[in-house]
Structures are given as structure tokens and as C-alpha cells.
């Protein structure tokens, strides 16, 4: 395909054309005044110094130029009503069009080198040439738009892979909606990174048509229609970018829209923003910049200006969303989303600096850095407020059944999500001191991560949670149930730390300390529940009379009935802990009861013994099952 020669490449041809025009003017009008004749002679002499006016040129008549000119105009005009693209017509037709445009432009430039045109024929040729140029430019502008649309290519599908997250997390300020199953599904932060960690530039336009587009650019720039070319390129590519944003499901929201959004809608929009801003800055915009450079590489400053114009509306809409989110209140349930947004905003800053290195793009570069700073400040404030919200979470009534409190589940499951953001939180928290219950130690068995800024803050959050649980435990009138509640919740905290990446942050000393803590609660439960009951089964010199033995047996049965009625409604959700309690209790209670009956059954009398040892053993297995109502007491009383 013949490519239109840029202005710098046609200098000699322009001189040749001017020479033809000079000879034609001298031959066409014998009434030229002396001044004009002298001007033409001087111009002819000037052109000759460039080696243009050789014998071959002298012998070329104006009629040959005029004929060639007419053919060129005819070729250009033939495309005025042709709705197909020049590219589709094939290389030969494209060569003819660009050659015709070159011939007409040569004549126009030749006339521009002469004084004001007064000759009628000269004016007519010049006007025909300028009209043809206008028509050609309109045709090329349409050609540019058509080719860009027709040969547009989309970013590869793998860049659009949706997160493997099963469902969005939904939070509320009552700390009741983050459970274990949701956390398992939600822990896919690293998977998301893997999906978008190997970005590279994509071809937004079929590479095979780039020489044709570049030929259009050179022709329009040579004809001083660079503004029309740039406007067309910007318009088409900006529209393509808008369409791509719809593919990413990223809408444009005003600040007011973002501030009014409910949590569920905002949560979804923040997830989409995190994904979209990374793909746009690391894939799409580098590809767009590459395209501009491929087309306008000979016009570097123009290439940069076009790229910025194509990008800025979309970029600013993304930045506006980030700024609006940072204006919302620091709600604890938004912490993970803020972390994700800040992490991405910090990660892409180098990419942004490379995208907009020039002064013309400095406003976008600075805007990205400012949004990242605001997200950093807001994320830090939200993290710190999370601990405050835990401290302020009070209860008016004891938690039913002494089970694992919603606050405990919420906090520990939320903390399980945070190790994925360790480096981010360490950078945000490194200048913020916090009290830590575990003194810093050194040694082979101590991981440095245990005393990182994030680790200290997470332990501080759990310390706040522990204080809240202690206050909640005081709402129980029953000392045994208070111990069950504390045992359940401290055990849950230990299990969450041991079974996750939190272990590397909390450290083994913290785990040992808290295991000892809930084991003390187990001991307190057994003492407060069974000590007075088992005392009834202990023989001494004062408890040897037959009536006294029967009374003690009766009182034991009544006390056991009371424990059974109450504690079958209590909850120990951890099956391992529940089994341990059953075994421990059974060993103490059944063994004591069996010894008591073995020593005293004959004197008590069978009809006064309500429960056998097997009855007691089986009934103990019903404890802590959190039944909605008391189970009917079994009786193995023999008739």
C-alpha cells in the first residue's frame, strides 16, 4: 500500500510543482506586469538552486500537470459517495487514492508558494485542489472511524475472570452476620491476585490495519488536518473505553450516589472498582497508549495528548468513586473493602507514573496519588474504629445458653481475613503504637511476624474483645453458666488462631496463655456445678443412719434433675470440647455415684434409688446440647 509521504518527505516534489506552476503562469498570460515577471524570474532562479529546473523539467508543459491533477481530483471524488472503506477495496485502490491525494496536495503547496493568485485559471485550479483536499480529508476521517470500529479487538477474556468468591460478605453494625462458612468462601484474595498478576499489553485494534491507519494519520497531518484526525481518534477510542467499562460492570457514580448507597450496593460497587481500576491501569490504558504511539509515533507530543484525552474521563470517574468512598463514615464492616481499594491504589501508582510521565498528564498522576493517600488515611481510621466498636458493644441480657457470642464469631472470623493484607496493614500501622499483652522476645522459636505492627494491633483487638466478653459474662446469675460462656468463647478464639494464618501473628505464647485460660473456666464450671452435689455422696461418721442415706440419695437425684433440666439447654458448640466435658464429668459423677450405691444400696433400699449408674452416665451425654425445652427426665426406677 502506498503510504502518504509526510511534509518533510515531499520538499523536492513541492519545488518541482512550484517550478511547473511558474512556467505555466509565464506561458498563460503575456500581459504580466514587469514586477510580476521579475518575481517569477527570481522564483525560477531560486528553484533552480535546488536542482529542480533541469532540462527534463523545462520540457514538461503545464498541460501534463493539469491532466494529472484532474485525474487525481477525479479519483478523490469517486470516493465521496462510496460507503465501503478504502482498506476493503484492496492495496491497489488504496495506493491510487493516496497517490491522488499526494498529487493534489503537491499542487496546493506549489500555489501556496506564489503571491496572491489573480489569474482566473490559476484560481480555478487552486479552488478545485482545496475542495478535493477537503473531500479527501472528510473521507479519511470517516475511514479512520470505520476501520477503528470494524477492527476493534477486546481485551483477552482471562483478564475478565470473576473472583472465585462464593458470595459477597454482608455486614451490619450488630456483629451478627459473619459466620464460619462465609469466611471460608470469602478467603480468595490471593486467587484474585493470581488472575490478574500477569497483565501485558493487548492489541485494541487488529495489527494488520495499523499501516493503513498510520497512512491516514500521515496524510491528514501533511494536509494540516491533524486536529480532525485527533478528534476522530479520541472520539472512537473514548467510546471503546466506555464500552469496556460496561463490560467490567463499573458504572459512573456521582459523589452523592456513593454517599447515599446502602451497604449491599456499595459493597458490590467497591469490589468492582478494585477489579476495574487494576485492569484499566495495568492492561487497557497501557494498550491504549501503545496504540496511540503506533499510530502517531512520528508526532510524539500529539500521541501523548490524544492518549490523555482518551483516558481522562474514565480515569477521573474511577478516582471520583474512590474519593467519594473515602468520604463515608469509618464503618468497621467496610474495613476489608477499604483495605482492598487502598492496596490496589498503592500497587498501581508506579503503573500510573509510567502511563502519565509528561507534564500534560501530571494532573492525572497527582490525582491518583491523592486518592491513594485518602484511602490510606480512611482505611487506617476504619481499622482503629473497629476496636472502638468492639469496646462499645454492650448487651442488656445474657447470651442464651452460654454459647459463642455473635461478637466473638464476627471479630475472629474478620481477623482471619486480614493476614492476606499483612504487608498493607504493616505499612499503615507502623507509626501507631498500641498496648500489647505479649512482651517482645527473641529466639529461634519466635517469628518476627509475631511482633509486627499488624500482629500487635490484632492482639490488642482481641484483648478488647476479651474485656467485652468478661462484661457480658457478669450478666449471668448462674456461676456455672458464666464459666460455660467464657470457656466457649475463649476456646473459639484459640481454635480460630491455631487453625489459620493468625497463628503466625499471635504466636505460641498467646495460644498457651489462652488455652490455660479456658481450662480454668472448665475447672470453675465443674467446681460450681458438681462440688456441692458430689458432697452428698461422700460418707462420713455423721452420715451413717439409714434415713440420712435415703435423704442424701433423694437430694442427689433432685439436684441432678435440676442440673439436667438446665444444662441440656446450655450450649457447647465445639464437639471436641463437649466430649471432653462429658468424659470429665462422667468420670467424677458416675464414679462417685457408683461408689455411693456400692456402699449403701442395701441400706437405702431399691425403691428409694431413682437412677442407676447407667442412667446417670447416659443422661450426662445430653448436657450442653442446647435443647429448646427441657427433655423429659428418664426414670429407670424398677417397679
From TrEMBL:
Pfam family, one: Exo70_N
Domain Exocyst complex subunit Exo70 C-terminal: 272-622
UniProt xrefs under InterPro entries: Cullin_repeat-like_dom_sf (IPR016159), Exo70 (IPR004140), Exo70_C (IPR046364)
Gene3D superfamilies attached to this UniProt entry: Exocyst complex component Exo70
Keywords for this protein: Exocytosis, Protein transport, Transport
Keyword Translocase: no
UniProt record similarity statement: Belongs to the EXO70 family.
Record-given protein name: Exocyst subunit Exo70 family protein
Organism: Camelina sativa
